[in-house]
Amino acid sequence: MASPTKTFWMELDFRFKSVTVGKFLCAELGGGTIIVANRSAASTWETFRLWRISETNFQLRVFNKQFVGLKNNGNGIDVVAESNTPGSSETFEIVRNSNDLNRVRIKAPNGLFLQVKTEDLVTADRQAGTSWGDDDPSVFVINFSGRLEGEFQVTNGYGPVKAPQIMREHWNTFIVEDDFKVHSWKWIKCCENTCWLVDSKAGFEHSSSRDGSQEWGLTDGNIQQTVTVIDFLSARYAKNPSLYAVELINEPFSPGVSLESLTKYYKAGYDAVRKHSSTAFVVMSNRLGPMDPRELFPLANGLNRIVIDVHYYNLFTDTVNGMTVQQNIDFSQRNQESGVESSHHIKWPSYFGR
Q: Residue 122: beta bridge partners?
């Protein structure tokens, strides 16, 4: 007896072991060519990141970020990982054995199931019937590791009908425009929550990553779409007397986000804000990770009403474990004062938080 999976909302990295040959599915060369089943142990090439499309349908992303599909744009039966953009021909159904949920079959877009004919030949041409035994080349044992527990995963799991109902209580805690009217707050920091980014700027669930990948800034397209959002928000709030500052992005992560792409975005984002407001401060967040805390100074030096937002975190290092409060303060002063002191000689305000 088989049943479609109702799980896999947050599970991230999947590995599929053929029960007939005892080897793992593998995207040869990490992607761009065929799928084989000849690896005794699973590493990066044998790991598939699941994109959940619906309760039963999924797309499988390989190490080099191509998607598993069928040869000849879905018209063949050989299983490959060649497409950079997933579509219907890269969408599969994962069917679990209701008596052993670690046993699955993978139904291809052509309506047939993947099977391992040999260690070097995986095809999508197996019919529906199965006993789920070790003699069925279409049966795989799965294991997975890693989870993303962000709002994207939750809403994707519940789907477009149930998600708004279930998430309404959570969304009702968000700060909205009317809150500023009630409390007469004198500032608003726009866009710090980066859930609207096209691709994650850090690879974490709280930065809207779908599969743990960090891809924001890699293309002009996702940079421009983010600028469009900044333009929309600036236009919306520009005439509001409570508008004090607009932060263009919060905590882009280095080295995945390059200084070159970030500078390109900050220039365009600054222009978008200035198109609607000449008085609002424009906040530019420094990158987290390896970076020079002064790397944005050359860009900001020629602009007006700029804030450089620098975040220093001590809690992510074991160095401060066991320190007293005063020792922690002394450590921060010794290790972070150079970035702070350098701001004393520049012509724009700097905000140092966290």
A: 116
